[in-house]
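re the bet — no i am not wrong, look at it urself. input seq straight from the record:
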Amino acid sequence: MLGGAFFAQAVASPLKSEPTSQPRHVLLLSVDGMHQSDLAWYVAAHPNSALAQLVDAGTQYTHASTTIPSDSFPGMVAQLTGGSPGLTGVYYDDAWNAKLLPAGTTNCKGVKPGVEIDFTEDLDKNKSSPDAGEGLGGLPGSILQMTGSPQKLIDPSKLPVDPKTCKPVYPHSYLQANTVFEVAQNAGLRTAWSDKHAAYEILNGPTGTGIDDLFTPEINSDANGYPAGNDWTTDNKATEQYDNYRVQAVLNEIDGFNHQHTDRVGTPAIFGMNFQAVSTAQKLPSSDGLQGGYTNKSQPGPLVVKNLGFVSDEIGRMVSELRKRHLDKTTTIILSSKHGQSPTDPNALNRIDDGPLLDGLNAAWKKTHPKAAPLVAHAVDDDGMLIWLSDRSKAATDFAKAYLLAQHGNGTDINKAPKAFAHSGLETVYAGAAAAKYFGVKPGDARVPDIFGISQYGVVYTGGTKKVAEHGGAHSDDLNVPLVISGAGVPTKVVDGAPVETKQIAPTILSILGLDPASLVAVDKQHTEDLPIR
């Protein structure tokens, strides 16, 4: 753990910056989709950039891994709780729970349990509107007026229901571990965050109140005025505009205001946001006249390069604002990512339609179990497979595993030509008790997937050709994300190549602020250590 000894060492080492005050603020930034290789490439090519300066003024961990599955929800939750999916209970933003009741249930007696846990834009009162249904006028330009309490923007009739209370389960109460925001609040400190759906109120933690100011403009809402404007992710310029709104919110918070810039409340002790532009640049085949994805193995294409520059410049604005407000000597910046993106080798891409695979599994099961329900209760397949079954017996999980491994067919390559696949595009399949063991939970756990399939490199499960990359799997392209700690109290010009995990960010944040990391349930139970800062 960090403490007085850490700061004494920081002053003594010749590599350290000049002594600063005790850090009083932590600014956490997630560049979704970004790989460590992207950061290394960009810094080498742009040594005078804000990203390069951030790396130079801090400690860089070159072998950092995010969660498995590498989805946004478990990835962000890990950074702010210190826990892996098995402990937090959060495997994906769209999952299944075998014990909760279907959304809309009002009379719970005799209702069969088992329900999709959909913590996406589908929870919004109006998912087509950037304000998620708050009813603001003048959108999207007025989006900064949006509430800092997005729980009120969630439609409770869309939430799963607790059979014990017969009441809706909000995202925050679904989380099985507390967050750094709650620990900070208990110490009388202010907190703020910005993310992409109202459902990110899960980061409030089990109390439901951990974040004082939570700004969540809906990224999958209509982005009018753009050629591909059915949402902010389908046109990369739109994604940049979306990110700009949230950067402005952070700038307002640096200045000591709420995100709306209406009330002077003081700069938060813990605050930050995630960037989406790099992620869309990696996934779109092209946008705004530029090729998306990668041109060769780990070589960013023109659109990704443009967006790495965009993120660098936006981070530079934040750093400049911290200096302007004389907060640079008391603020520590942590840069990482919720997830990477796979594949970074365009020649490895194989887009496989998972629909026929799941339909075939159900049909094969029905042949021998004609009166049984469809075997697949729920599935989420991006570049890995998570499947929850209606029958969780060993016989059923073994059947599903055997079926998937026996399937062969054709997907489409980067040029949209047929490309053969074997074993449903899977490299390894964990089924039943093996899947539970993989995630560190007991067999029969209500949340754990019954089938977890790790895909072959390059496989993306999609029904069309609109994507050239995805996340959610377990390849190094999904997992190896950047991790940099820079600023107040941190040694400069340090490169640490030891393996670390992004869940170590959570206890590190608390230690930086002089708070007890053991206050986090996940840190206490999983013995999550601080990041080593020399």
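see?? Residues 282 and 293 are 4 Å apart (CA to CA). told u. also The mean pLDDT is 95. so pay up
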